Amino acid sequence: MEGIDTVVHAAALKQVPTAEYNPFECIKTNVLGAQNVIEAAMAVGVKRVVALSTDKAAAPINLYGATKLCSDKLFIAANNIRGSRDLTFSVVRYGNVMGSRGSVIPFFLEKRKTGVLPITDPEMTRFNISLEEGVDMVFFALEHALGGEIFVPKIPSYRITEVAKAIGPNCEHPVVGIRPGEKVHEEMITNSDSMNTIEAEKYFVIVPNSAEKNFAETMATYLKHYSAKPVTPGFRYSSGANNVWLSAEEIRALIKKHVDPGFEAA
After folding, report:
1. Percentages (nearest 5) of helix, strand, coil residues in the chain
2. Mean pLDDT of 205-222
3. Is residue 265 part of a domain?
4. What is the domain range of residue 174?
5. Annotated catalytic residue within 14, 56, 68, 165
6. In the structure, what pLDDT confidence band is assigned to residue 208 with cuts at 50, 70 and 90?
7. Is 47 a catalytic residue?
8. Can you tell me the mean pLDDT for 206-219?
9. Is residue 116 in some structural domain?
């Protein structure tokens, strides 16, 4: 890592069922691997580190989410032990990138050839973010982070039934039940986080709260830095309680733009 100024830590073992089946492999990659990155960055003079998190780290109910919560805590706390180094650690949190491997859209695009799109739960919702939006948020964090923040994007939600309607309106949509460790709704900011969360123009920012520092002063610093305002106490950011929703038609347009330019509903 000699001569490297910036590190974006994107590696993770992220398959929820695999983590439930073989927990320690997930722990080795997502927790011990995170600490390895932190120690290496401090050892060789890296200046900026941004770690990619996940919605599953907020109030985790599965092993993968628990390991990513541990990873987030490690990167945030690393700011407490950086000493006099010109070095900041921060975290960006979002769900599956649109069209990424293992997400529902490429799965449905493949399954529609069979005429059947299985629905895990008709109530299921997810946030939607494009690869470009995710990359922009990483660059924002690299440029603006003071250290210890978790950045969360303001993005729309979709219902799984709308995705099925967008991709295979003429397919069968049987309900098959959720997978082990899967949530019905994605959550990126919990009620408990609301006291630490501020709202900027494009992002929410969860501000670090250290016992070593006066939190009121810390909050004032971050509010000014991001030209932000505190969220309402008890605020919760969940895909199921969002105020911006994508329709099947809008999902089709996004698939053509970000996933498959030749896409047509079947």
Report:
1. 45, 15, 40
2. 92
3. no
4. 6-258
5. 56
6. very high
7. no
8. 90
9. yes
